[in-house]
Structures are given as C-alpha cells and as structure tokens.
C-alpha cells in the first residue's frame, strides 16, 4: 500500500514539474510576464498548453529511462528546459525572435556564449552543466545493476519514448496526429514566427519549425517550363562580352547601420559614419533591406552570395545555411561563377568556423579556402574588444590581393561590431540621450566609427594596387540594442534598412546615392555597374529589380520606392516574379534542370 502511495506521489510530482516547466517556457517567451504565461496556460490556450505538456512529458521519460534514474533524468531535463528558456528570453530581447530547433546547433559555441553572458554567469552555468552530466553518467553506470524487471521497464519506456520523439519530430507531416490535434485550435502565422509562438505556445511554435521543405512546388514546375525560362534570358546575357577580370571583394559588416535615421535618438560627439558617408557620396550607394532586426546574418549572406530570396522560402525555413545548404551537393552562386571564370575564391570570417555551419556551407558554395580566427595572419583587436578588428581583417584581404596576381573573389564577414557593446573601449567619443540603453548604444557608435575609418583606409590602399578591384560593402542588420519604446517610434522600414555601397578602385561606377536594394541584387548590380559579363540568371534578377527594387517577407519596395506590406503585381510583372520563383525552386528544392544549359554562368 505504501509503495502504491509512493508511486502516486512521484507521478504527481512529475506531472507538476512538467506543467511548471511548460509555464517556465511561456514565462521566458513572454518577457517574464507571469500574467501572460498563466493566461495562456489556463484561460486562452489551455488545450495547446496541455498538448505541449504531453510532449515535454515524453522528453522527460526519455531522459529518465536513458539514465535509469528519475533524479538524473529530472536534472538533465531541468538543465535542458532552463537553457532553452533563458536562450529564448535573451533572443527575444536582442532579436525579437524565439529559439528555433536549428538554433540548438549553436550549443557548441562556447566563446560566443561567454562573450554574451559574461565570464561570471558563463562559469556558473558551466559548473552546473558539469555537475548534471557527472550525475547523469554516474546514474547511467549504476543502471546496469538494476534488477531484471527494472531493466525491462526501463528499456520499454526508453524505446517507447524514443519512437514517440521520432514521431513528434515529423510534426509537419499532414498525417501527424499531434499536428492534427494542434490544428483544432491553433492559428498558425507563418510570416511572423514571433506571433506564431505567442499564439501556439513555445512548444507548438518550436515543433512548427521542425523538418520542412525549402519551398512549396509551383503548380507548373517541370523540365519544359524551366527550359523555356532559361531560353528566354539566354539572348540577353549573350549580348555583352567583357574579358576584364577585376578583383571582387564582398564585405558584410556586422550590424553596420546609420543610427541617425532612427526617431527618438539624440547623438552628440560627431558623426560616427563620417568616413563612410564621404566614400558613399562618391559612388553607387544607398540602403539595403534587411530581413531581420537584430540578427539574421547568415540569411543575408545566403541572399548576397546565391541571388536567392528568403521571401520565397517556406517561412519555417528560418536558416538555409544550417537547414538546407549542408544537404545539397551543388548550389550555384557568385562563388561558383567566379571559379568558372578563373578566379581564386576565399572566404574570411574572423571568428569560429562552425558558426552557421560555414565550414560545410562554404565548401558547397565552392570557396577554394576559408580563413577564420585561427588561420588568419592578422588578428589584432582594439582595446577591450574581444573580436578581431575590421582593420586587421582588411589587412588580410589586402595581403591576398598583393600576393597573388590571379583574379580574386574574397568574401569577408566582419566581427568587430558584434554585440556586446558595453565596455569595449576606455574612451567613447559619443553620448546618447533619449534612450535607456545609453552605454550599449554609445559603445556601438564607437564601433561603427572605427569600422567606418577602417573601410576608408582599405579603399585608399586598394586604389594603389595595380589591378582593378571592386568592393561591395553592406551592413547585415541593425543591432538589437534599441528599447521597445524607441522601436515603437520608428517604422518597419527604419528598423530593416542598413547601409551599402559599391566601390571601384578605378572610379568606374555611377554616382547614385539613393538606391534601395536587397542583397540578392548585389551581384547583378555590380556586374552592370562595372561592365562585366552578366549571366542569364543575373539578367532575370535585373528584370525583377525593375519591378521590385527590394523585397523581403511582408516588406515590398516597388520601382518608385514605395513600401507595401502585400505583393501586388500586374500580369507582366507577375510573369517575371514567377520565372524567378520557378528558378529558385528548381535549384533549392527541385531537380536543378536550370544547371544544364549555362543559366548560371
């Protein structure tokens, strides 16, 4: 009788723990609001909350049965849920985005978390993790000495929970019963994952972003349709011939943007972008539409290198670099085009190679070499900034251009201006009023000041090289440091526009300073401006740009630079847009028919 009572108590404690952990995830997702978490669970979305609790119970059973111990399983489960919850809270603060399944790949980025959290909290977390892992391993060892009946129960629960988790991981299949149960009351919002998580709960939103196709197949997709499209653009591309092979340098500058464009922010101490502006006024420059606020670096890089738009992807395909590209054998890009035209291709990222699986992605894109913080020759930093400076990164690029007379394509992703921003520099030239995160913003302003100076010096040194060199420089997104109050004072376009410019060491580009563009237009624009031979694919992008000068999900800029939340095209414009969509589907999800007749080279 006592044992039965004991089992009942243990069962109730487990259920209470599962419900509490689910509430904890909701609490973290909702900016630590107890009211929102409780209302979601017990008043607004009770059915979805208990479906999520069922999923968490399966996860707990898996951990406990794997360890052969309720205590060890509970410890590992608690560590996992706590980590996911805190990561969600931090990501919502900095990027207004929840944690996605693919973000779990970043669990090995120890240096990144140390810099974001600070040495003290990071050390405490590491100690807790070590204690839990040791306890888990110890209990796992002890589990081998359980009685025969206990082993049978344990292995049965382990198998059942494992296969249940596998079934849950296929959440997005139409026949999945859990998905059908969610669909009874869930209002999915694909275009806004933040709202998606709010409406369906953390677990529901997390499951919604599991295993998904890159794009839905267009109704008229076929080899014949793709052949018609590729034939349509062949004559246009063949009309230009150019044998010149200038060096091409892409520079994606971390969080580089102009704070002056934000309402509610007052800056004194000068203009941190003065050197950048002096350069931009003399060449082809303007604003770049960024998909995200406060993050999304890899997605902007994906668009810039491939010419493919995130707007056309399934909304659940949140990070192609980690979810899609590593599974591909071939992906045409500016990198592969440069290689086919006799260029040496180098990627430089002054940080860890595993961020966003860049080691694998760069190999598939076709880079000849990838230089990171461990293989770079120039690794200087500025004062207390933990990241390699832009100046040092540019020296690495210059070293490549000077040593090898073969035409070079170099893609640099900088890190100097990456968060955190406070405490990097002993002396900051700028003061900010009207905002609560003053020190962070002031540190950021000093960062982009140094970045602006380094860019100017870099272009001056390029002008002294004997070979013509073309540069495309852009900021990937705004930093996620502005308060909700300040964000509310600014429009969507204000929070999603960064700076870009194109530079020619021989001053051969047009002087246009008010352009608005998207990253996937960079290559065709550069080729057109510099008089280089375009590909049929770039001709298609050029035609598309005449209709939509920039676009990302829920943000469309027409040829007159007017902003729209919905896509509205006439019949002829829709045809061009559909051609582009079919080509993108063909490469990313289809049979890659368009690779057969030189459409990308």
From TrEMBL:
Keyword check for Secreted: no
Localization terms from the record: Cell membrane
Class in the EC hierarchy, top level: hydrolase
Classification via SUPFAM superfamilies: Alkaline phosphatase-like
Pathway(s) of this molecule: Cell wall biogenesis; lipoteichoic acid biosynthesis
Superkingdom: Bacteria
Keyword Electron transport: no
Domain (Sulfatase N-terminal): residue spans on this chain: 246-531
Transmembrane segments annotated in the record for this chain: 7-29, 49-67, 74-92, 120-140, 152-170
InterPro entries (UniProt xref): Alkaline_phosphatase_core_sf, OpgB/LTA_synthase_biosynth, Sulfatase_N
Gene Ontology cellular-component terms listed: plasma membrane
Pfam families in UniProt: Sulfatase
Topology in membrane: Multi-pass membrane protein
Residue ranges the record marks as coiled coil: none
E.C. designation(s): 3.1.6.-
UniProt KW keywords: Cell membrane, Hydrolase, Membrane, Transmembrane, Transmembrane helix
GO molecular function, one term: hydrolase activity
Record PANTHER family: LIPOTEICHOIC ACID SYNTHASE (PTHR47371), PHOSPHOGLYCEROL TRANSFERASE I (PTHR47371:SF3)
Name this protein carries in UniProt: Cyclic beta-1,2-glucan modification transmembrane protein
Organism: Tetragenococcus muriaticus 3MR10-3
Lineage of source species: Bacteria, Bacillati, Bacillota, Bacilli, Lactobacillales
């Amino acid at each position: 009788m006592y044992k039965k009572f004991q089992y009942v108590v243990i069962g109730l404690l487990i259920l209470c723990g599962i419900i509490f952990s689910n509430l904890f995830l909701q609490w973290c997702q909702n900016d630590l609001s107890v009211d929102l978490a409780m209302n979601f669970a017990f008043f607004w979305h009770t059915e979805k909350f208990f479906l999520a609790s069922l999923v968490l119970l399966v996860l707990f059973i898996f951990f406990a049965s794997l360890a052969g111990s309720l205590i060890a399983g509970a410890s590992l489960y608690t560590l996992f849920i706590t980590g996911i919850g805190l990561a969600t809270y931090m990501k919502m603060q900095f990027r207004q985005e929840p944690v996605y399944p693919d973000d779990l790949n970043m669990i090995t980025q120890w240096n990144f978390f140390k810099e974001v959290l600070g040495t003290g909290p990071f050390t405490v977390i590491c100690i807790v993790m070590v204690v839990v892992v040791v306890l888990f391993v110890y209990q796992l060892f002890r589990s081998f000495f359980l009685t025969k009946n206990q082993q049978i129960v344990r292995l049965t629960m382990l198998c059942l929970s494992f296969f249940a988790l596998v079934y849950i991981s296929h959440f997005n299949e139409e026949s999945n019963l859990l998905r059908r149960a969610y669909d009874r009351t869930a209002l999915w919002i694909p275009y806004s994952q933040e709202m998606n998580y709010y409406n369906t709960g953390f677990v529901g939103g997390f499951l919604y972003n599991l295993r998904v196709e890159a794009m839905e197949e267009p109704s008229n997709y076929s080899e014949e349709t793709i052949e018609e499209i590729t034939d349509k653009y062949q004559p246009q591309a063949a009309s230009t011939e150019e044998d010149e092979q200038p060096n091409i340098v892409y520079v994606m500058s971390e969080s580089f943007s102009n704070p002056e464009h934000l309402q509610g922010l007052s800056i004194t101490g000068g203009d941190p972008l003065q050197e950048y502006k002096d350069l931009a006024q003399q060449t082809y420059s303007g604003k770049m539409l960024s998909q995200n606020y406060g993050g999304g670096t890899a997605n902007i890089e994906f668009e810039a290198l491939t010419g493919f738009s995130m707007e056309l992807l399934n909304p659940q395909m949140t990070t192609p670099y980690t979810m899609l590209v590593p599974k591909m054998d071939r992906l045409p890009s500016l990198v592969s085009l440069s290689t086919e035209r006799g260029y040496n291709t180098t990627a430089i990222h002054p940080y860890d190679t595993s961020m966003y699986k860049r080691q694998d992605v760069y190999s598939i894109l076709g880079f000849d070499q990838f230089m990171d913080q461990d293989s770079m020759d120039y690794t200087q930093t500025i004062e207390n900034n933990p990241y390699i400076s832009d100046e040092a990164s540019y020296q690495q690029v210059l070293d490549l251009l000077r040593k090898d007379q073969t035409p070079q394509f170099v893609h640099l992703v900088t890190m100097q201006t990456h968060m955190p921003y406070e405490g990097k520099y002993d002396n900051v030239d700028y003061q900010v009023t009207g905002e609560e995160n003053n020190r962070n913003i002031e540190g950021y302003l000093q960062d982009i000041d140094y970045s602006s100076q380094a860019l100017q010096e870099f272009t001056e040194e390029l002008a002294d090289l004997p070979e013509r060199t073309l540069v495309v420089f852009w900021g990937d997104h705004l930093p996620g440091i502005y308060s909700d109050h300040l964000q509310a004072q600014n429009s969507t376009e204000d929070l999603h526009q960064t700076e870009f410019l194109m530079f020619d060491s021989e001053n051969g580009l047009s002087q246009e300073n008010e352009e608005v563009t998207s990253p996937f237009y960079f290559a065709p624009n550069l080729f057109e401006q510099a008089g280089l031979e375009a590909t049929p694919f770039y001709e298609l992008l050029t035609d598309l740009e005449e209709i939509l000068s920039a676009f990302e999900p829920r943000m469309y800029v027409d040829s007159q630079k007017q902003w729209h939340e919905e896509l509205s095209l006439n019949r002829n414009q829709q045809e061009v847009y559909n051609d582009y969509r079919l080509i993108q589907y063909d490469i990313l999800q289809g049979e890659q028919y368009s690779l057969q007749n030189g459409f990308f080279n």
